[in-house]
Specification:
It is built from 19 helices and four strands. By secondary structure, the chain is mainly α. The strands form two sheets. The protein has a two-stranded antiparallel ribbon. Strands 3-4 form a two-stranded antiparallel sheet.
Length: 473
């Protein structure tokens, strides 16, 4: 049924359906009162429909009429209650009651609430279906005129269109593709070619050939282009094939996945053309936008003629509100300042960093430059001694006075060869790890292997390792 209603507006489609469904072949003579181009087009489509047997033609026509009528009723049922109530406030009470009775229950209740819940009016008699159709028609026109502007077309809208609408786009694109080839034919052959086309395609091809006359091809090149699409044998199918080629090329520019989805939706002769040009255009480089802008332009022109419907765009999602600013009440002088709620800080992992107000242990006593600069660097000798004692090489945070270890606890933590030291000289450092004392000059000591305090050195064992001992080497 798609081929019988291609390039027809909704008005022309309904006129053709009702004429053939209720009047039969005798109603075709009523098309004589229309415009010449429209008369020729409707008579051509009526002749094609009359070739279908009557027992199959009538159900198809009635089914198409129901589809169009159902689509109109859905438009009214999907209207906003506020806009519908604004229109009905200017009407008489009887018209309001007739419309509310014809609407779905939920929509009618919402419209009554928007109008202030007027008391229901009891009608004297039932409204005829013909009158109700006229009221619905006028109400739909009023809603359409007051409706906000719908969105413009995009190339991806082809995926949501009916096949008859896509065929209309293909015919217009095919006429533009073959314009220079048709203009390059001799006059007699051109007239023969145009005479084999249906009325709608003939009008498109004639206008396109006239516009491309300045860039016409030679006779040989024109016939070669027409034979590539099979237009010499079947001009109508060849013109549509050229248009499908441009659509497939634009689909490849959109993406391979989009092309596959578009091919899956095609049926009948359209599916054969799409499959052919998908094989031909696969792997070819795409220049520019692939002709997508031209297709969108043709969709706009078809929408102006009422052949395709404009897409309805949903409003963009609302942006989240900005963060709430709260005035700071920490001090009276900063009452005007505002602070933002900061995210919670994460707990440190690994090496512990010191708070900004915590003093680092002064481990660089031997380097006055570091002390003057206030940099928490460790003295190389002290760092090496700490590594020998098994302590970490990083900076050690200072502990509060209550958490500092006692002397006995510090003695148990400082180990030498796996054994705790018995006596450790008291230190004022805040670190729980004691620094290993350096060796003194053996000449100033009383005996080798002892320190000035008379205790055994924690480094030197026995009396045979001192540098001043005869048995050191």
């Amino acid at each position: 049924m798609e081929q019988y209603f291609t390039s027809l507006s909704k008005r022309q489609t309904m006129l053709l359906l009702t004429s053939l469904a209720f009047g039969g072949s005798e109603a075709v003579s009523a098309f004589d009162h229309l415009d010449q181009s429209e008369e020729e087009l409707l008579k051509h489509r009526a002749a094609a429909l009359l070739q279908i047997p009557r027992d199959k033609r009538i159900p198809l026509l009635v089914q198409e009429i129901k589809r169009l009528v159902t689509q109109r009723r859905r438009q009214l049922a999907s209207a906003e209650p506020r806009r519908l109530a604004a229109l009905l406030k200017r009407e008489r009470a009887s018209i309001v009651e007739v419309v509310l009775n014809a609407l779905p229950g939920d929509l009618a209740a919402a419209v009554r609430a928007e109008m202030g819940n007027p008391p229901p009016l009891k009608l004297q008699r039932d409204v005829k279906p013909e009158v109700l159709s006229i009221v619905r028609w006028k109400l739909e026109d009023a809603l359409r005129s007051n409706a906000p502007q719908v969105g413009s077309f995009r190339f991806t809208d082809l995926m949501m269109m009916q096949q008859r609408e896509i065929l209309a786009v293909a015919d217009r694109m095919g006429a533009r593709v073959l314009a220079t080839a048709i203009a390059g034919l001799p006059d007699e052959e051109r007239n023969t070619f145009l005479g084999k086309l249906p009325p709608d395609q003939r009008t498109l091809a004639a206008r396109a050939a006239e516009a491309g006359a300045a860039r016409r091809l030679t006779d040989k090149d024109a016939k070669l282009v027409l034979e590539m699409h099979g237009a010499t044998e079947n001009p109508s199918l060849g013109l549509r094939s050229a248009g499908v080629q441009r659509i497939v090329r634009a689909c490849y520019a959109q993406g391979a996945e989009f092309t596959q989805r578009f091919a899956e939706r095609a049926t009948g002769d359209m599916a054969k053309l799409v499959a052919r040009w998908i094989r031909e255009e696969k792997g070819k480089p795409v220049k520019g936008d692939g002709g997508r802008l031209d297709i969108v332009e043709q969709l706009e022109r078809l929408a102006q003629k009422g052949i395709v419907d404009r897409p309805m765009r949903l409003p963009p999602p609302a942006k989240p509100p900005p963060p709430v600013l709260k005035p700071s009440t920490s001090s009276p002088s900063n009452a005007q300042s505002k602070v933002l709620v900061q995210p919670p800080t994460r707990k440190p992992t690994g090496n512990v960093s010191l708070p900004p107000n915590t003093q680092r242990p002064s481990s660089s006593r031997g380097n006055p430059a570091n002390n003057q600069a206030g940099v928490g660097r460790q003295d190389p000798v002290a760092a090496r001694a700490a590594r020998r004692a098994g302590a970490a090489s990083g900076a050690v945070p200072s502990l509060p006075r209550e958490a500092r270890p006692t002397d006995s606890q510090a003695r148990q933590r400082v180990l030498r060869d796996g054994k705790p030291l018995d006596t450790v000289p008291p230190r004022r450092s805040t670190s729980p790890v004691q620094e290993i004392p350096r060796r003194k000059d053996p000449a100033a000591r009383g005996s080798v292997g002892t320190n000035p305090h008379g205790r055994a050195s924690p480094v030197v064992k026995g009396s045979g390792r001192g540098p001043g001992n005869n048995g050191s080497r």
